[in-house]
Amino acid sequence: MCHYCLDCGWRLSTSDGYTDTEVSERAIDHFVETGHTVESVWLPPPVVANH
């Protein structure tokens, strides 16, 4: 999972060695401290099968 801020360059991801819980908690902390909007995406992106 990757969380990133729409208002500044802040970002944190499980690919950086953090757990999903740590990434989510730090994203909430960033929002509370700054009031910035934080979005998230799952890593890796889902695979779409064409039939």
Describe this structure in words.
By secondary structure, the chain is α+β, with helices and mostly antiparallel strands. The protein has one domain (2-41). Helices cover 29% and strands 22% of the residues. It contains 1 helix and 3 strands, in the order ββαβ. It has one helix at 20-34, and strands spanning 2-5, 11-13, 38-41. Strands 2-1-3 form a 3-stranded antiparallel β-sheet, covered by helices on one side. Strand 1 (2-5) and strand 2 form a beta hairpin. The longest helix has 15 residues, at 20-34. The radius of gyration is 13 Å and the shape is elongated.
Features:
single chain, 51 residues, alpha+beta, 3-stranded antiparallel beta sheet, 1 helix, 29% helix, elongated
Quick recap of the structure?
By secondary structure, the chain is α+β, with helices and mostly antiparallel strands. The chain has one domain (2-41). The protein contains 1 helix and 3 strands; from the N terminus they run E-E-H-E.
Number of helices: 1
Overall spatial form: elongated
Mean pLDDT: 88
Percent helix range: 25-40%
Write the layout of secondary structure elements.
Layout: E1 2-5, E2 11-13, H1 20-34, E3 38-41
Antiparallel strand pairs: 1-2, 1-3
